[in-house]
Design goal:
- The protein is about 20% helix and about 30% strand.
- It is α+β, with helices and mostly antiparallel strands and about 60 residues long.
- Strands 1-2-3-4 form a 4-stranded antiparallel sheet, with no helix packed on it.
- A hairpin with a 2-residue loop joins strand 1 and strand 2.
- The longest helix has 10 residues, at about 50-60.
- The protein is globular.
- The termini are far apart.
Length: about 60
């Protein structure tokens, strides 16, 4: 499945317009996994994936909320 985050190895498609954003260190404390929901807006659920990964995602496709 080709998705807009093909260059980011920590993003995995789950369903249409739903992506798992894996946290650093296999999402172990203090990090966690997050979800990206894409539609009219791009929403990141649980920003515990770390500032660097959030920045990488936002550079590929703007996070609205």
């Amino acid at each position: 499945m080709n998705h807009p985050f093909a260059t980011l190895p920590f993003i995995h498609p789950v369903a249409k317009n739903v992506y798992l954003a894996g946290g650093p260190g296999k999402a172990r404390f203090p990090h966690c996994n997050g979800f990206l929901l894409m539609g009219n807006r791009t929403v990141l659920i649980d920003s515990g994936i770390g500032a660097d990964r959030i920045r990488q995602i936002d550079e590929n496709i703007r996070i609205d909320a």
